[in-house]
Amino acid sequence: MYTNGIVADHAAIMKFITFFMSQAYNWASLSKDPSTKVGAVAVQGDQIVCSGWNGFPRGVNDDPVLLNNREEKYPRIIHAEQNVITNAAREGIRLRDAVLICTHHPCPTCSGLIIQAGFRSIIFDAKTFTDDFRMRLKTAIAEENFAKAQIPVVGIDYKPD
Ligand SMILES: [Zn+2]
Fold first, then answer.
1. What residues contact 94, with CB distance under 8 A and at least 6 apart?
2. DSSP structural state of residue 76
3. What angle do CA 77, 88, 153 make, to 5 degrees?
4. How far is the CA of 81 from the centre of ligand 1 (A)?
5. Cβ-proximal residues to 131 (8 Å cutoff; 6+ apart), any chain
6. Is 102 exposed, middle or buried (0-12, 13-18, 19+ CB in 10 A)?
């Protein structure tokens, strides 16, 4: 690992990131999606400034019949990253230069919104980056977007305390 000697306490940084990831998982636990529960938090400095999880829009009933039918679910569901961004818009929270901590790698649509919102980097849980998830969400397009936009994406080996 490279260090210039200024940021010497790498363990402390990882402790922060692990804590933020645990919070992302707490939000994910609120998701009613029976197949994939995703959570995300936006971090400015050392503070979580906004959060979200995947689900139907506010006020739209979490009907299990719709949630268990992918053709019905996909057009209705708001991704965790989309909820972070729209929750921030709703509350007037600035996301430029924030770090997005997410349980999963973003999809192509979310990657565009993340770039446009001004996030500086993305940290996700590498163990959720399965072949099935990558194919289903076409994450290769998102990876390409982040690379072209020069936004670092880091998959960590998250281990809950
Ligand atoms: Zn998405």
1. 44, 49, 88
2. T
3. 75
4. 6
5. none
6. buried
Centroid of ligand 1 to alpha carbon of 64 (angstroms)? 21
Q: Output the CA 46–ligand 1 centroid distance in Å.
A: 25
What residues act catalytically? Answer: 81
Q: Give 119: exposed, middle or buried? Use CB within 10 Å, 0-12, 13-18, 19+.
A: buried
Per-residue tokens: 78:
């708001």
Q: Give the distance (Å) from ligand 1 centre to CA of residue 3.
A: 33
For the stretch 4-20, pLDDT in tens is: 555 556 777 888 899 99
pLDDT, tens digit (0-9, with 9 covering 90-100), for 19-59: 999 999 999 999 999 999 999 999 999 899 999 999 999 99
Q: Percentage of residues in the chain with pLDDT exceeding 90?
A: 87
> The pTM is what?
0.91
Q: Which pLDDT value is given to residue 2?
A: 53
Q: What is the mean pLDDT of the chain?
A: 93
* Protein residues within 5 Å, CB atom, of ion ligand 1: 79, 107, 110
- Bridge partners (DSSP) of residue 51 are 41
